[in-house]
Amino acid sequence: MRTALIVSLALVAPAFAQRADPRANGWHTDYTSAKAEAKRTGKPLFVVFRCDPCGDCVHFDGQVVKLAKPLDEIANQFVCVRLLRITGIDLTLFDFDFDCTWYGFFLSADETIYGRYGGRDGKSDTGRLSLPGLKYAMQKALDRHKAGSAKTVERAKPIRAEDFASAKKRRGNECIHCHLVNEFRRADAKAAGTWNRDDRWFYPLPENVGLALNTDRADIVKAVLDNSPAAKLGIKAGDTLVTLNGLPVASNADVQYALNNGPKSGKIPIEWKRSTDQMAGDLQVVDGWRKTNLSWRPSLFDILPMLPVSAEDLTADEKKKLGIPEAQAAFRQDKYVHSTLKAIGMKAGDVIVRLDGKTVEGSMDDFLAMVRREHLVGDSAELTVLRDGKAVELKITLK
């Protein structure tokens, strides 16, 4: 299923008609008029970018559109805007993870951003979203709006999706999907000779620095991963995050945005509270810390390789007989061997266990995600398979 934000109003016909009409629930569908109302009323803006009728996030989005409980308790303090187009939008203002299907901003009429809400991972499109979590982020944004404490950030010259050189090559009647913003950026950077392989690691997850966060209140640390930057700094479960990389934290999106602006290696400043104690320090990150599961990102589909296996995961008993740890991903190729795999010597019954000498915990899906995490199309790799109980190394050029 396509996971990109589809941003053409032409796509909202029959399926949209079956859902709650946002206008009937007080939503604006035009940003300019909504900003004027925010200026007139003194209310902050709640701006949602949404793929409609994309299947991802459909239930969550439907609840937001209806301003279901507990959002009904706070929504009337915002001017709510729902946008289905990325064309014409200033991307230096609405800068977000363009591979997501649902994303929200909280900002003032003068376009001072108070916070963000959204984000996803390779396991679920909504695993990091909840209505209580959204309400909490809205309340924190509202508090900042009332306090007038937010700093206006100077932005670069406005740029729109249609302004990229690669965007101009598209036919005029083709709609621009949000994930295409990332593709346009990559194409323009490649043309300028400034793109490199590490640029595919964007919007790293909180877990990349060792932070597992509470979904309903994402400034609360639910757990800290062992030997992670957060653990080494002394952050503990139950601590409350205050700022990360200089930005206030109220949601998973706030954390991901702050991390996205972090260095390839070095220090990321963080402030947190433990009871009444205020604490501060630096997360020390090393090269490679941004790596995560990319297999769900539509903007990378053209550069991420596919390993065309047709296989089933081994059972615990089968792994035990072969001396494979139960937690390790291992799967058996069935009788339908793809021509690409036949060409490198793969046979029906081969058990795939390693990539470039590395194993991964989980299932075949986790192994295939590792292929896409470690390599790009055109890379050479080595697969280790077990055949008649013996290890066989197969070299492959990934496509």
Helix-strand string: HHEHEEEHHEEHEEHEEEHEHEHEE
* Largest sheet descriptor: 5 strands, antiparallel
Which band does the percent of strand residues land in? 15-25%
What is the global morphology? globular
Instruction: Give average pLDDT, whole number.
Output: 92
Radius of gyration: 23 Å
Number of helices: 10
Helix content: 10-25%
Q: Distance between the terminal alpha carbons, to the nearest Å? A: 21 Å
Class inferred from helices and paired strands: alpha+beta
Number of strands: 15
Topology (SSEs and partners):
Layout: H1 14-17, H2 31-41, E1 45-50, H3 58-65, E2 79-83, E3 102-107, E4 113-118, H4 131-147, H5 179-192, E5 211-213, E6 221-224, H6 229-233, E7 240-244, E8 247-248, H7 252-260, E9 266-274, E10 277-285, E11 311-313, H8 316-322, E12 331-333, H9 339-343, E13 351-355, H10 364-374, E14 380-387, E15 390-397
Task: Describe the 3D structure.
The chain has 399 residues and is an alpha+beta fold. 23% of the residues lie in helices and 21% in strands. The longest helix is centred in the middle third of the chain and has 17 residues. The two termini are 21 Å apart. The N terminus is likely disordered.
